[in-house]
Amino acid sequence: MSTLTGILGATDAPAGLREDSARPLLPLRLEGAVAQVRGRVLVGPVDLTITRTGVTIVMGPNGSGKTTLLRLMHGLQRLSAGTIRWNVPDDVARERQAYVFQAPIMMRRSVLDNIAYPLILHGVARREARARAADWAERVGLGAALQRGAPVLSGGEKQKLALARALIRRPEILFLDEPCANLDGRAMREIEAILLDARAAGTRIVMATHDMGQARRLASEVVFLYGGKVHESAEAGAFFEAPGTPEAEAFINGEIVE
Amino acid sequence: MTRRLVLLLAVVFAGIVAASARAEPIRVAVTTSFQNSGLADVLLPEIKADTGLDVQLIVVGTGQALRLGAAGDVDAVLVHARAAEEAFLAQGHGLHRREIMYNDFVLIGPAGDPAGIAGAETAAQALQRIAAAQVPFVSRGDDSGTHKKELALWNAAGLAPTGGWYRPVGAGMGATLNTASAMEAYVMADRASWLNFGNKGGLALLFSGDPALFNQYAFIPVNPDKHPHVRADLALKLEHWLASDRARELIDGYRVNGEKLFTFNAKQP
Amino acid sequence: MDSIFQGLGQAVRLIFTLDPDLYEIIAMSLRVTLSAVAIASLIGLPLGAWLAVNRFRHRRATIAVLNALMGLPPVVVGLFVYLLLSRSGPFGVLGLLFTPTAMIIAQVIIITPLIASIAHQAIRDLWAEYHDLLISMNATRGQRIRSLLWDGRRALLTAMLAGFGRAIGEVGAIMIVGGSIEHSTRVLTTAIALETSKGNLEFALGLGVVLIALAVAVNLLIHTLSGTERAPAW
To answer: Which residue of C has its CA nearest to A169?
Structure first.
């Protein structure tokens, strides 16, 4: 289907684009996807489909390739083999995703200007962008810190800022790479609440974590990575109740960390 | 912050634009010795008052002054190196050579005069005594008019100065005098530069007066046939003034510490 | 030591007697140098940023050349600009030799590599920090460079001030292309060279003190206007 649209788009670009923007971004299909750096395979080959709704939690021990898999899907990591196909052409797809990094990247600007930045990039007038950013800052609990410099925020505040900045353009899919890795329990709950709101508003969530509790609270689906390969891709309840592989079982029981 | 910086930049650019709109003046390449004599400070305002000419001096060595003339970068030159001037004319770079005035070179050295040149009868004899005593002598060594004159004098004395005592520094008159002052060395300078020099230290004027030390200044308008933009009309106007009685009065009357520096000798055609 | 104290005394006297010739020379120094810094920044800052964010075939070589150009002797630049602007040179018809414009051109050539190189270094570090974010947000190449220049503005201001420092104290090049013409192209540094050649060492030193005071004043002014030292360090 997407191949067909690609061909139509090439012959009649404006109509094709209009059609693309009306089409849903998902599902995302990975077929034999491999990420290889200097001859070493980091991830793959992976076959995986991200459907239209829900929260996918990517789990696995350290070094299993969680980050690489997320970056591969988002297009930050070059694909060495196989295919990754969105339901729309790639250039359109990039516009409709967002990504939150494990170590949040704070631009050297105020909180307000950080959150407004994606809107400014897409040609929204500065005044309107700032108004919407202030609204989002309020929603994530940064309403009192609008004019503070983003680089001096606490770890939890930085992650909330990164979330607001990622969500402000209403992405259809949001990738998160261990957003709560260094946060205390309260900050973690606040962030989870924001994610649940986003999900309710229609944003598909794909998140890497190795926090078992968080995975159980959020997941509708789990992808278990081990040694760069998908060992299991299952509905959340089934995965936690009856893991299909010995490695997954050992991981759930806390026996594999590295 | 941005707005203020932008404002600052705007002011700077406005300054550039405003400054480029200015009347075209006449440019004359002159030698360092002329500029350092202080005579220019007396003559330029008078020239402006009498002729309306805004004379801009490019102060360089004789060699570079003639280069600037040949390239058409100045409208006239005022220099003192006869052989080089005649070569300049022979190549068609100048309209003609007009002698204006002369000053003289003097021999400077440590006040104690270890080589005993103060009692010499001629410049040649003074140089021979310096060479014989092997006392430090600082030379311009920069191919300037003064340097060429110094070499001609050594030649006339039958000497080719070499050895550790002879130190060419490759610098202008002022820098050379500063070096000689620091080293307590002998040095040849034009009288004007010496009198106006403020860092004499332990140096003193030891020998002067030999006609071999006279230093003729000549004015050469650059040939407009080679460079059409050259303001030969202005250069001729300036030349006319420099050869006038008014100039004679000012040049002959110019004194530094009560001493006369220049002698006017322009001939009326 | 006496000479040094006399020089300092001269400087104080010069500044407070409001000598019109001195103010003319200061104004010319500022006009030439600030213009050169403005133009060199317009070229050097985006160039440095561009080199930081782009990968191309001869990138390393380009950066090496840029760094080497920082060490270019001003006299060589002066000679080069002289040969270009001389009436017998390729741009002789413009009649720019011995004008402030010629001095600005020479200074731009001297300080652009310095400004570009410092900017490149600062922007490269910032780009390493921002890379994933800007790629993820699909920022265009122009948007990336603009964002990096804006967020790196403090470091870029430092680059500009370094360029200012090099230009305001430069004498070799502007002597050749400007000619140090009184009331026309004479600036503080060429005036210092002239007074030194006349042996007026105290006066020359006095002018030197004025030059340093001017450089400090400009630095303070820029910092005050941009609020660098007041706002938090982020």
So the answer is: C137
Which of A76, A107, A152 is opposite residue C135, by nearest beta carbon? A76
Which residue segments constitute the domains of chain C, with CATH numbers given?
30-224 (1.10.3720.10)
Per-residue model confidence (pLDDT) at position A141: 87
Distance from CA of C228 to the nearest CA of B (A): 9
Is the pLDDT at A205 greater than 90, yes or no?
yes
Report helix, strand or coil for A50: strand
SS3 of chain B: the string is CHHHHHHHHHHHHHHHHHHHCCCCCEEEEEEHHHHHHCHHHHHHHHHHHHHCCCEEEEEECHHHHHHHHHCCCCCEEEECCHHHHHHHHHCCCECCCEEEEEEEEEEEEECCCCCCCCCCCCHHHHHHHHHHHCCCEEECCCCCHHHHHHHHHHHHCCCCCCCCCEEECCCCHHHHHHHHHHHCCEEEEEHHHHHHCCCCCCEEEEECCCHHHEEEEEEEEECCCCCCCCCHHHHHHHHHHHCCHHHHHHHHHCEECCEECCEECCCCC
d(CA C77, CA C82): 8
Statement: residue B5 has pLDDT above 70:
no
Out of C136, C137, C234, closest to residue A108 by CB: C234
pLDDT tens by residue, A52-104 = 888 999 998 888 889 999 999 998 988 888 888 888 888 888 888 999 998 89
pLDDT reading at A182 higher than 50: yes
Q: Which residues pair with A48 in a beta bridge?
A: A30
Tens of pLDDT along C154-191?
889 989 999 999 999 999 899 999 888 888 889 999 99
Strands (E), chain C: none
Structure tokens at C200: 């007026």
Cβ-contact B204, B110 below 8 angstroms = yes
Q: Is B21 on the interface with C (CB under 8 A)?
A: no
> What superfamily does domain B105-213 belong to in CATH?
Periplasmic binding protein-like II (3.40.190.10)
Structure tokens at C96: 């720019």
- Largest separation between any pair of C-alpha atoms in chain C: 66
Residues of chain B with C-beta less than 8 angstroms from the C-beta of C87: 71-73, 227, 229
Closest CA to B242 of B4, B13, B55, B68: B55
Residue C62 has pLDDT above 80, yes or no: yes
Give dist(CA B236, CA B65) in Å, integer: 18
Give the start-to-end residue ranges of the domains of chain B.
3-102+214-264, 105-213
Residues whose CB is less than 8 angstroms from the CB of residue A8 and which lie 6 or more positions away in sequence, other chains included = A15, A16, A19
Chain C residue set in contact with B, beta carbons under 8 Å = 31, 34-35, 38, 86-89, 92-93, 95, 97-101, 104, 153, 179-182, 184, 194, 196-203, 225-227
Q: What would the two tokens of residue B34 be?
A: 């002329």
Structure confidence by residue, pLDDT tens digits, A95-140: 889 999 988 999 999 999 999 999 999 989 999 999 999 999 998 8
Contact between chains at C31 and B36 (C-beta distance less than 8 A): no
- The percentage of residues in chain B with a pLDDT greater than 90, rounded to a whole number, is 54
Which CATH number does B3-102+214-264 carry?
A: 3.40.190.10
- Whole-angstrom distance, CA of residue B126 vs CA of residue B176: 20
B172 to chain C: nearest residue by CA?
A: C197
